[in-house]
Specification:
Layout (H helix, E strand, L loop, with lengths): L11 H29 L5 H28 L23 H5 L17 H20 L8 H23 L4 H4 L8 H19 L4 H5 L6 H20 L7 H27 L6 H15 L8 H20 L5 H4 L7 H19 L28 H31 L6 H6 L1 H5 L32
Helix pairs in contact: 1-2, 1-4, 1-9, 2-4, 2-5, 4-7, 5-7, 5-15, 7-14, 7-15, 9-10, 9-11, 10-11, 10-12, 11-12, 11-14, 12-14, 14-15
Amino acid sequence: MSWNAYPTWLNAGDNAWQMTAATFVGLRSLPGLAVLYGGVMQKRWSVNSMMLTFVAFSLVLVAWVLWGFKMGFGTPIGHGKGFFDTFWGKSGTVLSAGAEEGQAVIPSITEGPPFHFPMASLVYFQFVFAAITPILMLGSVLGRINFKAWIPFVLVWITFVYTVNAFLIWGGGYFAAHGALDYSGGYVIHLAAGISGFVAAAVIGPRLQRDREVDAPNNLLMVAAGAGLLWLGWNGFNGGDSYYAGANASAAVLNTNLCTAVAMLVWIAWDYIFRDKPSLIGSVNGMITGLVCITPAAGFVNGWGAGAIGIIGSTVVWMAIRFLSRAPGFRKVDDTLGVVYTHGIAGLTGGLMVGVFADPHVVEYIGLGGASNIPGKAGIVHGSWTLLRWQAETAGFVIIFSGIMTFVILKLIGIFVPLRLSDEELEIGDHAIHGNEVYPSDVPTLGGPHAPGWQPGGGLPAGAGA
């Protein structure tokens, strides 16, 4: 008897790259962002930051396979071509053997060649994109969000915000049908996370005043390690979104790294121009800005466009952090890690730059023309303003929809579970919430959180201690 592990439609190279790319993307969350958050926060919030990251990753996977994937990439809820007909996908699971091992397909997308890998590869690849979005948003509310409120929030937000944006832009919905481009998530992931995180920070309220005044990382080595995982993990993020191990994937990876390097160097240059010392934290912000800005454009622009996006994006975000953050509406909101800048504004800038630099000579799939698989589709520098219009309209929707829905979801959850940690938990941090801390003491100290009967502000009870 002869055996064949490969159906006629499956290309082993494409499938291997898709699973590898998905793993790279997953590594950006675990351990990438978990380690970065654990190092950049004060030590008493390190464990909590990592725990929030791990639980979000787990929650999204369960929701994704049970209902989320179909809502973002399944059959549209309507039968026409109007906005609300193509607003969302019908929910459903992807857990049957036939669903997992059958050929990958996105029903609403009719242009482009068929996928050459199984549905399971597509589901997992899109899961790691979904998972990192609330984890990025989390950076805005570290140091005060209630762990018990975070759990339902992640499930509801993924269901009613992420899947809608994904379907409209990636799943063949309204904006995709009108030519809007978002190669790997400048809008679906970063803009949505930045806006939602900013709204969440405003609703939940600021950290303790002492946490805002002494906002010092507890471990810069962890920050550097997490940042490095983000940078190289982005090769899977942008390199996997052509869905083929072909020339466009290679171009997207090169463009991603070039834009990131340029953005980081430009950030350091601005630090020197304003007579600041180039810090590791600042340089990481420049790196992240470059990664985010190129994300919506990676497979649609040439190398010159990627370099230009790095210069423009880094400059815009650097200036926003230095000057816009002083404006009343921004100054009053305690966005812990500045997610609204490095992801929100960076994602918006990168998405708009697609409308400027998209090159019709960049071929994603052989035989299907340029930038968006529609021959002649081009940015401003290549002779067309149409793409920029749709990039701007799509961004406007993501901003308004994500912001309003995040506000509503938080207010509803707040009726049942406090969104903010108690004052006692805010004073203590990790040990009060999780029962451990990132740098535990070998010997309990008098009055410390490990001491029997310890209470904040009250020291040890009478008769305790030596």
